[in-house]
Design brief:
The chain is 57% helix and 0% strand. It is globular, with a radius of gyration of 16 Å. The chain has a single domain, classed as Hypothetical protein af1432 (Orthogonal Bundle). The protein is mostly helical.
Length: 202
């Protein structure tokens, strides 16, 4: 994410009465495709969605509906970035509020860049979207320069590239370090999880 500030100037989103109200994955995908033209950005959002869903199921023992909540937050977190960069992520939040979507999904989207939006990650879903957002894109960039892409990729090669500031320079290492400081997993564990789960996303 670019180093621009888009403070939302609020910390509550949606209403508690809408808890449990979710888009279907088909509805969320339609919104994504309507709002985002850039194929690379669409891929990034699908990758984060897949990671969120997999983490919810494997690490949080989430049921199907809870996993869908995580997945939708990942799928739509950058939906307004391409067409409304100066109002990211205000536009998608307002859209989801009008659709009466679960406030936890909206808060999750609002917290995926705390220093940009001024919304702190509160629960595990919030913390993991913040964790996956920058690191997912970084690992994908590393895969693209390898002849075998993700096949054979190891954690050590990624941690080495993270220290090479000229590689994928737009990826904010401070955000990655801040995100990992908020969870009970090491950076190496998160990298391995992404390597294991991200290649299947096309």
């Amino acid at each position: 994410m670019a180093d621009s500030i888009y403070l939302l100037n609020r910390n509550t989103f949606g209403t508690i009465e809408n808890a449990g109200n979710l888009l279907t994955i088909e509805e969320a995908t339609t919104l994504l495709n309507d709002w985002v033209d850039n194929d690379r950005l669409r891929l990034h959002m699908r990758q984060v969605a897949a990671l969120m869903k997999a983490w919810a199921i494997e690490k949080e023992n989430a049921d199907e509906k809870t996993a869908l909540k995580w997945e939708i937050a990942g799928l739509l977190h950058d939906a307004d970035w391409e067409k409304n960069p100066n109002y990211h992520c205000r536009i998608i939040i307002e859209k989801l509020e009008k659709l009466n979507i679960d406030p936890e999904v909206i808060h999750c989207i609002a917290s995926h860049g705390p220093k940009y939006f001024g919304v702190e990650p509160e629960n595990e879903m919030d913390k993991m979207i913040y964790m996956f957002d920058e690191l997912s894109g970084f690992i994908h960039a590393a895969a693209l320069i390898r002849p075998t892409r993700y096949e054979g990729m190891d954690v050590k090669s990624i941690t080495k590239k993270l220290k090479t500031l000229s590689f994928a320079a737009q990826v904010n290492r401070d955000d990655i370090n801040d995100a990992v400081s908020r969870i009970n997993y090491s950076l190496e564990e998160i990298i391995q999880f992404i390597i294991d789960h991200q290649p299947a996303v096309k």
